[in-house]
Amino acid sequence: MVEPAIDDLSILASFREEKTREQAFTQLVRKYQQRLYWHVRRMVVEHEDANDILQNVFIKVWKNLSEFREEANLYTWLYRIATNESLTWIEQQKKRSSISLSNDDNTLANKLEAQKGFDANKLEWRLQQAIQSLPDKQRVVFNLRYYDEMPYEKMSEILSTSVGALKASYHHAVKKVEAFLVNI
Amino acid sequence: MQEQNKILDELESMGSTLGNISRGMPFTVPEHYFNELPEQMLIHVLEENIISDLPKSMPFNVPKEYFNTLPAQLLEVVKQNEKPKAKIIPLKRNLWYNMRIAAAAVLLLAAGTGIFHFTQQQNSFEKQFAALPNEAVKEYAQQNMLDLPNTNMGVTANTMTATLTEEEITNYLDETGWQ
Q: What pLDDT does A122 receive?
């Protein structure tokens, strides 16, 4: 995945100018869309859900980028929005499932098994199953560290949690994932 | 790259084998999704912008003092359309009263039924009696003459013999051994 070499400050400056706002926005989307997409997709599994959430993320970006403080990191800010949107969506789905009188098997685990090409015998699919078995926030920590290779300090800004707590959470997550893979 | 090495070292330090697993995602993405997303997002946010920029005030005129006078007007209309209420007799309060009425109705019904049946019997008896042949009635009356109380039934020997012929009297006397 090749990202345009446009720095965040230039994007922000262009966005503040009405004439170049739309162009800046398009550049921003192009730069961060894949990272944000996969971050969301790993949380919610289905493409359609990930697409909905991602669009909500970029709408919020459009509405609030003018007030964004340049001393903060744009990348961190974007990830924070995407993480919050994903976790909120998951909570809403859980509430709907608990209220629903029907025998709703539309859990993330079931959605994973419904994915095109799913094969429980393949390690990459079993790894996804293991990750889906983690609690939501712990899953975020694991994904950000394991897949996005995010430093704990950056993660701390995104999740408003101490570095120590995040390290502990990640270590526990790794143990759980391994235990899951061994037990299958 | 630096961070990647840190992560691999971290996993190794935990004794984990996850560092040896491929981190490629097995999920599929629709073709051209990332090519089209930026333009789609722009269209989307501009539409949102247009909608949010639309004025929310209503361009319609409202007559002066309309909302001030409306409550009183409505009350007037409601009063005019109000129909006289029918007297409602709640059953629960007059339960004893209703029970007495019901008992009287049952009594009347029973009495009426009894009278009806009695009347029916009478009529029935008269009808049956009228249907009897005269010969049978006479025979019965003759056979049971001695059973009748000795009351004046308006029939005397003179009235009876007045209707009989001499031949009939003679025959009777012969049959009964009186001659």
A: 87
Q: What is the pLDDT of residues B16-66, one digit of tens each?
A: 989 888 888 999 999 999 999 999 999 999 987 777 667 677 767 788 888
Tokens matching residue A184: 């299958």
Name the residue facing A33 among B11, B16, B34 (closest C-beta): B34
Q: How far is residue A165's CA from residue A22's CA, in Å, rounded to a whole number?
A: 40
A160's torsion region: left (phi>0), alpha (psi -120 to 50) or beta?
left
DSSP code of A19? G
Residue of B45, B50, B51, B53 to mutate, testing the A interface (most A Cβ within 10 Å of its Cβ): B45
The helix/strand count (H/E) of chain A reads as 9, 0
Q: What is the pLDDT of residues A118-132, one digit of tens each?
A: 888 888 899 999 999
* Complex-level ipTM: 0.85
**B119-167 residue pLDDT tens:** 766 655 566 666 667 776 667 666 655 454 444 444 454 555 556 677 8
Number of Cα atoms under 13 Å in the Cβ half of residue A2: 2
CB-nearest partner of A29 from B3, B14, B38: B38
Q: Which residue of A has its CA nearest to B13?
A: A171
pLDDT of residue A179: 93
Distance from CA of residue B3 to its chain's centroid? Answer: 81
- Both structure tokens of A120: 């429980």
Residue type, B34: F
Quick count: other Cβ atoms within 10 Å of Cβ B64? Answer: 8
Q: Is the pTM of the predicted complex or chain greater than 0.90? A: no
- Sign of the CA dihedral running A141, A146, A152, A158: negative
**The two structure tokens encoding residue B77:** 């209309």
Contacts of A117 (CB under 8 A, 6+ apart): B26, B28
Q: Under DSSP, is residue A49 helix (H, G, I), strand (E, B) or coil?
A: helix
- Given this model, what pLDDT does residue B154 score? 47
- CA A149 to chain CA centroid, Å, is 13
